Amino acid sequence: MRLDLVPRTRRAPVLDILSPALAFAAAVVIGGVMVAALGVSPADAFVTYFVAPLSEVWSLQEIALKAAPLALIATGLAFCYRANLWNIGAEGHFVVGGLAGGWVGVATHGAAGFTLWVLPAMLVAGALAGAAYALIPAVLKVRLGVSEILTSLMLVYVAQLLLDYMVRGPLRDPAGYNFPQSVGFDAAARLPYLMEGETLHAGVLIAFLAVALAAVVLAHTLFGFEVRVVGASPRAARFAGFSDARLTLSVFAISGGAAGLAGIVEVAGKIGQLQPEISPGYGFTAIIVAFLGRLSPPGILVAALVIALTTIGGEGAQIDLKLPLDLTRAFQGLLLGLVLGADVFARYHVRLVPGGPSGRPAS
Amino acid sequence: MEAVRSLSAPVPRAKAGPTPLFGAYGIVKRFGSFTANDGVDLEIRAGEIHALLGENGAGKSTLMKILYGLLEPTEGVVTHKGDIVQLPNPEAARQLGIGMVFQHFSLCENLTVAENIALVMPKDLSGRALADRIARLGIDYGLHLEPDRPVWSLSAGERQRIEIVRCLLQDPKLVILDEPTSVLTPGEAEALFTVLERLRQEGRALLYISHRLDEVRRLCVRATILRAGKVVGTCNPREETARSLAAMMVGNAVRAVTPQEGATLGKERLRLDRLALPAPGLHATALRDVSLSVAGGEILGIAGIAGNGQAELFAALSGETRAPDREAVRLDGAPVGALGINARRRLGAGFVPEERNGHAAAPLMSLSENALLSRHPTAPLTRFGLIRPGAARDLARRVIEAFDVRKAGPDPAAGTLSGGNLQKFVVGREILAEPGVLVINQPTWGVDAAAAAHIRQAVIDLAARGAAILVISQDLDELFEIAGSIAVLHDGTLSAAVPSAETTREAVGLLMGGSSDAAPAPAP
Predict the structure, then answer these.
(1) How far apart are CA B375 and CA B391, in angstroms?
(2) Biggest distance spanned by C-alpha atoms of chain B
(3) In a domain, B135, yes or no
(4) Residues A363, B359: C-beta atoms closer than 8 Å
(5) In a domain, A31, yes or no
(6) Residue A226 sits in which domain range?
(7) What's the whole-number mean pLDDT along residues A338-352?
(8) Which chain B residue has its CA at the smallest distance from A357's CA?
(9) Does residue A269 lie within any of the structural domains?
(10) Which residue of chain A has the CA closest to B165?
(11) What gap in Å lies between CA B43 and CA B257, rounded to an integer?
């Protein structure tokens, strides 16, 4: 017996929605088995993971605050991945964006007078720095043919060490008792809160707008068409007169800019100063989010919320049920695997065929 | 399952004459709601070359794959000497003595001839024994091969010989050949026919699939004709004309292409001036001092065997490859060698590459998006960088109507169209732009007779409206049908163009094979 995958001639739109939903359900069931194996009631764990975070105002805000950078970075990455460019350096772009934008915040610390420009300057600096940093692997690829996978990943560590050096050296708060951190930003350098007395800040809106903009660009502009054609049929893209090199530079700049913006949003929003660690691995988790969302901005928004929910739920489970954090990570990986697997079923009929392995079409 | 149920059915009787070597009865093959074969009967006798004719999409490939065990029929049975047999995979087919020579060779370019053959042979047969058998076959059948040559250095004809030798080493009783001459020069095709006739005389059966009706009439005395998945008739092709065979295949009389009547040529619109380009890759061809000139109203045909620089020439003309010398390519007098494809389009040029799927069109994208693909520089399909989906759909619809493109659904993915229909779409997309210069590579490759006639007529009509047209084609019949003059591309060098009325297929064929002494001399 062998398995044959027969492409579906017409894809039912309902399957596109149903398949990730079913994959999520399957992941929950398998997760429940893992939880039971750890000696915890799966029902309790389900409530802690998926119900409790959705039932309190503070945790809903936390979910939004976690989902925002993930969605922002993943949307940028989707441009690269759609064009078959494997940028895995978003963590580095995030850090460089946070550092550059934060530098503006530190430099303007205590400035008097008209300071409305400070925050926009920080956001622009963060996005530009992220874009510029992402252009390093892009230029290396275009000019010298260096694999972007290696260079973009290695530059993550360069960025992290650069931030570490800066907050221990030039940007350290002189009055900070030698702690490796900068001064706290002035109010003018902080993203405003959306509601009095709550944690939700304007960065969530920035992320949402960026995702919406990306959705329009991908679906309705010639540039978005270019990205999609290059990924789907590179030769047809050349026939359409789209330049590989220009596109590579563009999508890396977009992806780096989005991650850099996410970085400065995190620094100017939640953290409020520069410190050696500004990201709990957002740049890497966003890769999962991008693929969970099937590289489409609306899908990415949903995926970012789901991953944020499991992360916040996972923290709750750690505290309330003494379940390890690794379980959350395993669940997120499981979810990705199942969603990608379910995609196969959405795209192909799977048939069990009697007989040996599929024959090679050779005489 | 139907296949199991039909096992208990009585073995079908041969319709006439002795029990056939292989038979296929009541073959039905469905893919989802699409029926590729619908009750097909086919009988093949030992010692005959049996032609299988049909348009693209008529179900020839499906039937062939069922006989070779690559597909299983939804209903129906295959018999061997009157007994029902199961063919779950190609291995089972080979056990019964069925061999196949594919249209697209499945050879490893970097391995030698002998290694490619050893790959598919039983492990115990290797080294000297295998080399001996290859040599013996070579002598017996005139299939000369050098066992130590790497495949990438071989011509298409030599590659096909490897496929045939691989097939013959297994001593097949039935050999299925899928469009075997589509990549061969006339001379190579002659050599193939000799081999096929020899195999027939040995009592083997051959199933011969071809678009070339003249070949079928020459080789075969029995033909089965498929149309839309059904057998529409069997006949003796020698008692038919190429026209009547084609009519049976397409169901209505094929309209003959009206040639250009006393074309009056305008001024020069496309010119190549000693274009030289290094080979872009290891197995690619360098272009050497290629010069040509096409005037308005003229159709220049470039003949040549695949791999002699056609793809490179097309890329240099389209701007996908820029010329080092901007003066080397001229459109309406303007030097465009340094310009990209879109700049050349804006100057009034149109291009149709050889490969429909993945080059001329993105197969996973809709037809309207594929209209955008090549027309975004020249048609008002975008505004401030935003796509106007209505305008793109409208353009696609006009192409579909003007070129009778058959499709399922309002705006389906290009890859779901049959080859002929997609080709009509990508040709129509360019022709509706009324280009002043059209460069078209293999305009009707693998396209059925009706679609081919439609495309050729559209090209001729475009020339009559004053466009300069360059047609690159391996199909000599096509070039003699539509081109006013013909030049031959061999190993990156282009011969001088001669009026097609003043040369012959043989003269052009010799040039295609690279014999430089055979100048395209005017026919006697």
Answers:
(1) 11
(2) 74
(3) no
(4) no
(5) no
(6) 71-108+116-283
(7) 82
(8) B89
(9) yes
(10) A363
(11) 35
Residue A6 placed within a domain: no
Q: Are A267 and A105 in contact (CB under 8 A)?
A: yes
Give the residue on B whose Cα is nearest the Cα of A230.
B362
Alpha carbon of A143 to those of A139, A147, A148, A238, A249: distances in Å?
A: 6, 11, 12, 18, 11
- On whether the CB atoms of residues B86 and B93 are closer than 8 A, the answer is no
B273/chain A closest Cα distance in angstroms: 23
Structure tokens at B422: 């997609």
Does some domain include residue B263? no
Angle, CA of B196, B185 and B216, to the nearest 5° = 45
Contact yes or no for A198/A54 (Cβ under 8 A)? no
A215: three-class secondary structure by DSSP:
helix
Query: By residue range, what is the domain housing residue B328?
Result: 268-512
B119: which 2 tokens? Answer: 């790959």
Which residues of B, range 384-423, sit inside 8 Å of A by Cβ? 385-387, 389, 409, 416
The CATH number that applies at residue B337 is 3.40.50.300
B214, two tokens: 């003249």
Closest partner CB to A225 (pick from B91, B92, B387): B387
Task: State whether residue B193 sits within 8 Å of chain A by CB.
Answer: no
> Which stretches of chain B score pLDDT less than 50?
1-10, 14, 253-255, 517-524
Using the Cα atoms of residue B334, residue B338, residue B343 and residue B345 in order, give the sign of their dihedral.
positive
User: Which residues 6+ apart lie within 8 Å of B301 measured at CB?
Assistant: B471, B472, B473, B478, B479, B482, B483, B485, B486, B487, B500
**Distance of alpha carbon B169 from alpha carbon B99, whole angstroms:** 10
Three-point CA angle B424, B427, B430, nearest 5°: 140
Measure in Å the smallest separation between the Cα of B62 and chain A Cα atoms.
14
Cβ A362–B106 below 8 Å, yes or no? yes
Classify residue B56: in a domain, yes or no: no
Note whether residue A53 is domain-resident.
Answer: no
Distance separating alpha carbons of residues A193 and B344, to the nearest angstrom: 54
For residue B121, the Cα-to-chain-centroid distance in whole angstroms is 29
| Contact (CB<8Å) A236/B345 | no
In order, the DSSP letters of B421-477 are HHHHHHHHHHHTT--SEEEEESTTTT--HHHHHHHHHHHHHHHHTT-EEEEE-S-HH
Q: Does A229 reach chain B within 8 Å, measured CB to CB?
A: yes
Taking the Cβ of residue B353 and every Cβ of chain A, the question of whether any pair is shorter than 8 Å is answered with yes
Number of domains in chain A: 1
Angstrom distances, CA of residue B392 to CA of A23, A264, B383 = 36, 40, 12
CB contact burial A35-52 (16+ within 10 A = b; e otherwise): beeeebebeebbbbbbeb
> Can you count the helices (H) and strands (E) in chain A?
13, 2
- Min Cα separation B351/chain A (Å): 9
Helix, strand, coil abundance in chain A, percent, nearest 5: 70, 5, 25
Instruction: Render pLDDT for B225-275 as a digit per residue (tens, 0 to 9).
Output: 888 788 988 888 888 877 777 777 766 544 455 555 555 788 899 999 999
Q: Into how many domains does chain B fold?
A: 1
Q: Residue count of chain A, please give it.
A: 363
* Token pair recorded at residue B309: 């620089």
Asked whether residue B448 is assigned to any structural domain, the reply reads yes
Q: For residue A279, what are the β-bridge partners?
A: none
* B267/chain A closest Cα distance in angstroms: 28
For A4-18, A94-108, B224-238, B312-326, which range has the lowest pLDDT when averaged over its residues?
A: A4-18
Beta strands in B312-348 (DSSP E): 329-331, 334-335
pLDDT at A295 over 80: yes
Sign of CA dihedral A36, A41, A47, A49: negative
Which of B102, B342, B365 lies closest to A241 in CB terms?
Answer: B342
Q: pLDDT digits over B54-79, tens only?
A: 766 678 888 998 999 888 899 999 99
Residue of A nearest to B177 (CA): A363
